[in-house]
Amino acid sequence: MESWPFKSLPDMVRQNALVFKDKIAIAYKKGNGVTKFTYEDFYRFTLMVSRGLRKLGVNTKDKVAILSETRPMWSLADFGVMNLGAVVVPIYHTNTPEQVAYIINHSESKVVFVSDKTQYLKLLEVRDQIPTVEFVIAHDRFLGDKKLPLITFYQVSEISEPLTQNEQNEIESFINSIDISDTFTIIYTSGTTAEPKGVELTHKNLISNIYYINKKAKDLIDSNDIFLTFLPFSHILGKADSYYLPLAYGAQIAFAESIEKIADNILEFKPTIIVTVPRLLEKIYSKILDSVHHASNFKKNLFHSALTVAKQYVDAKYVNKNLSSTLEFKYKLYDKLIFSKVREKLGLVNFKTFVSGGAPLEIEVNKFFWGLGIKVLEGFGLTETSPVVCVNTFDQIKFGSVGTLINETQVKVAPDGELLFKGPQITKGYYNAPDLNKEAFDEEGFFKTGDIGKVDEEGFIHITDRKKELIVTAGGKNIAPAPIENALKLSKYISNAYVYGDRKPYLVALFTMNIERVLEFAKENHLHYFDIADLAKNQKILDLFKSEVEVVNKTLPRYETIKKFSILASDFSIESGELTPTLKLKRRIIYKKYMDKIECLYTEDGSCFSC
C-alpha cells in the first residue's frame, strides 16, 4: 500500500498554505463583488477559529456540530474544529428541530455553529432536549436568548487580533498530534426508515479517497482548476469531492449562491469541474431542449441534425469503438458550428467535467452531454465509503455503469446481488451502535452497501437499485423503480416521477409537472382551468401524460409497465420533505404523504387514470 501525501486533513491545508500560498482557495459572491481567500489566508483564518474555540474550552475529541447551508463559514468552522483534533458533526439546514436535537444528543455535541437566526431558533425550540450544548456560534449577527448562550463567528475568530507565533505553535501542536486513523467527522444518514445512523469517518478514509480518485483520473485535477460548489457539506459527496478534493490539489472552490443561481454562477466563475447530482444535469438537459423548442424551424432542424450525428459519434467512439474518419469530420464540423456555441452560452468553455453521483444518471442524458462536448463522469459510493469506490474516467468509460474500482479497493457480489466493498476509504463503523456495526460488515470485513448490482467482464460496476427499495409485486417479480422513473423524467412534461407497486398486482406512478411546459401546452390547446390543481385533473393533460407513459411502457417488459398514475399539483421538494438534500426521492415519506392517492390507483373506479 502506498503512503499518502498528508497525515490529516488539517495537515493537508497547512502544507498547501505553503505550496500554494498566494493562489485562491475560496471565492464567493458578496454584495456586487467577489470575496477571495488565498490558501495562506484560509489556513490563517482556520487557526484563528481554532484559537477562539480553545479559549471557549473545546478540546481534542470533543464533538462540535455545524448546522448551516453550504457557505464559506462552513469550511472555516470545519477546519477550525479539526485543527484541534475535535470531531465535526454536520447537520442539514433543512432538518426539523426534533431531527437536530436527536443528532446533537446522539453525538454529544457541546458546541453548535449555525448560519443564521432561523437555525438558532430551531435549537432554542428544543433547548430542553439538548443539555450537552454549552453555547452556539452564529455566522450572522443577531440577538440570542439567555437560555442558549450565543457568540458571533467574528467574536470567536477575533479577526482584528493578529495570530501570534505562540498561538499558531500551540494549535499546530494539536495538528501534529492527530493520527491518520482518528475520527474527524460523524455524518448522520438521512434516517427515512429509522433513527439516523452516525457514520464515523477518519482522516485516512478521506485522504486515501481523494488521493486515489485523482490517481484513477490520471491527475485530472490540478491547481488551475475551479470547482463550482453547491452540494451540501452535510452530505459526503459535497463534503469530500467538491470541498476536500479541490483543497488537496491547490484548486479554487467557488461557492454558488444557491441552486437557483447556478446557471448565473457558472457564467461568473467559469468553473472547470462541477461535482453534481443527476437532477441538476436533468434540468440543464431540459433547459437546452427547451431553448431549441422555442428556436426558429431552421435552427431547430439544424440542432436536431447535429444531435443525431453527436449520438452516432458518441456510440462509435465510446461504445462500439469503431469511429470512422467521415463521422469524426461531420461531428467536428457540428461541434464548431453548434455545440461550441452551446458550451459558450452555458459558461462551460474551458470546462473539464461534471462528476455525477448520489443517484443513477439516465444513459440518454449522459450521452447527450458527451455529444455536446461536455463530459460527465459517473461514480458510486456512500457516506460509509467516503464516498468513492468506483468511477468512470475519460480513458475507462461505459455508459450505464458507475465505472471501475479505484486503487486499493475490492468488490464482491453477494448471492442476492448485494455489492460489498473493502478498502482504506471504508468507515470504521457507526458511532455508539455496536449492533449496527455487526450487521454492516461480513466475516471478511467487507462493507454491505445495501445496493444491488453486478460487475461485468471488463470490471465495470452496474448498480440496479437499493436492496430495500426493490419493489416485490404480488406476482413475485423484483423490480427496481429508479430506472423506470429516470426514463419517465425524460418527458419534457414530467418534472419528477415516483413508481410504486410493493406487494401489488401492478405498478402505478405519481407525477409532478414541468409547469412551464404544461402551461404552454394548456395555452396552445385553449384549456380552461381555475388553478394548477385543476389543471392536473384536466382530461387533456391526463391524456397527454398517458401518451408520455405509453412511450416508456413500450420499452419495458409487461410486468414493469405503469398501469395507472396520478398527477400532483406541486413538485417534490427538500422543504416539503419528499427529497433528500441531494434531490433523491424519500420513498417512504412520499408513500405516507400520498397514500390515499396511491391506494386509489388500485381501485376499479374513482378519479384515478388508467394507462
Identify the notable features of this structure and list them briefly.
611 residues; alpha/beta; Rossmann fold; GMP Synthetase, Chain A, domain 3; globular; ligase; fatty acid metabolism; AMP-dep_synth/lig_dom; ANL_N_sf
Short characterization:
The protein is globular, with a radius of gyration of 25 Å.
Range of strand content? 15-25%
The named CATH superfamily of the largest domain: ANL, N-terminal domain
User: How do the strands line up in the largest sheet?
Assistant: 2-1-11-10-12-13-14-15-16
Low-pLDDT segments, ≥5 res: none
Q: Main sheet, how many strands, which sense, barrel?
A: 9 strands, mixed
Q: Helix amount, in percent?
A: 25-40%
CATH C-level category of the largest domain: Alpha Beta
Label the overall shape. Answer: globular
* Strands, total number: 27
Mean pLDDT: 94
Determine the number of helices (DSSP H or I, runs of at least 4 residues).
Answer: 21
Strand-pairing-aware structural class: alpha/beta
> What's the CATH topology name of the largest domain?
Rossmann fold
**Using only CA atoms, what is the Rg?**
25 Å
Question: Which CATH architecture of the largest domain would you pick?
Answer: 3-Layer(aba) Sandwich
> Span from first to last CA?
56 Å
| Total domain modules | 3
